[in-house]
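Protocol step 4 of 6.
Sequence for ANKRD50 protein (Symbiodinium necroappetens) entered exactly as in the expression construct, tag removed. Do not edit the line below.
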Amino acid sequence: NSRTTCIAVAAERGFVDVVRLLLDAGARQAIPREGTTVYDTPLATAAAAGHLDTVRLLLETGVDKDMLANTNFKGRAPLAWAVQEGHLDIAQLLLDAEADANQTCALGSGVLLRGTLGRTPLVWSCEEGRDEQVRLLLESGADKDRRGPCTPLGAAARRGHLSVVRLLLEAGANIEASHPNDGRAPLWLAAAEGHYD
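Step 5 output, structure tokens:
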């Protein structure tokens, strides 16, 4: 594939020894896709695929801080990929390396990406009902009331994730914060989906 690099492919497949070999040979961690300024970084591909050892190696070899924030062709940074795919251990590593817990998805207009614009790692985690990820992100400074396509509390309430709703409320999330597009509060969103608990 001429749109990605050897090191990104090796990272995506978890070939940590190949990644190490390529880094030792001087491979660059970020080369823009042909005709764009969008990167498929090894860090993003390894984070999305859940390869902890590869992510650790890339971070230990001095990944540029910009790579923690760099979004790939789907508009997601490595932390967003890790939480979306449920890789808590990788999310922890990235947060320890100072990834931004409040970075939003940069794209959202394509058919496959519709509605992703503005989502934060916390919103992804709330939508999926991942308690431990929500706890980790809150402890790392994620904004519990940040609005994107919805608030974290609205996302959890709409999906019926009661344990996540409780975590957010214990953290002081605003129960009155309405959905930015339609003005509906989390309680309304939960009731509309039949989540009466």
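Step 6, annotate. The radius of gyration is 18 Å.
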